[in-house]
Design goal:
Layout lengths: L8 E15 L14 E12 L4 E14 L2 E17 L3 H30 L12 H27 L1
Antiparallel strand pairs: 1-4, 2-3, 3-4
Helix pairs in contact: 1-2
Amino acid sequence: MAETKAAPQFALQRVYLKDASLETPEGAAVFTKGWKPDVKLDLNTKTSQLDESHYEVVLTLTVTIKNDEKTALLIELQQAGIFIISGLEDQQLGHTLGAFCPSILFPYARETVDSFMTRASFPPLMLAPVNFDALYAQQLQQRAQQQKAAENGAAEETH
């Protein structure tokens, strides 16, 4: 009797703010200067498997805003989600956790950044959309290059 494969399942169970901070290193002095912000965004994702079908994906954003070469504002946050995922091949699972889930979490993180900005009495900052598929593909390519370099290095050592 042929074994039937379970149909793939995907569901978002929960979205939550895991950690957040806002700093204005210059304090009130930042408000006495003209506002010509230079915005830098750093992104990172981390995944952990909670049980057989539950995964936590954490999207970390670090927004650094400089004004006149000095850090005016620093926002760090971890936007997390718990996803139910089953029935996917390893490659599909990797893409889902590395690109699809972060793309679901990003709008929540973007709204939190915007809210922090206005609560700190700065102009709103709506971060541009991020192409997580392209970032994931780039990450896979870098990993493959590192693995190839490591294999070449190991091969050279054995000669």
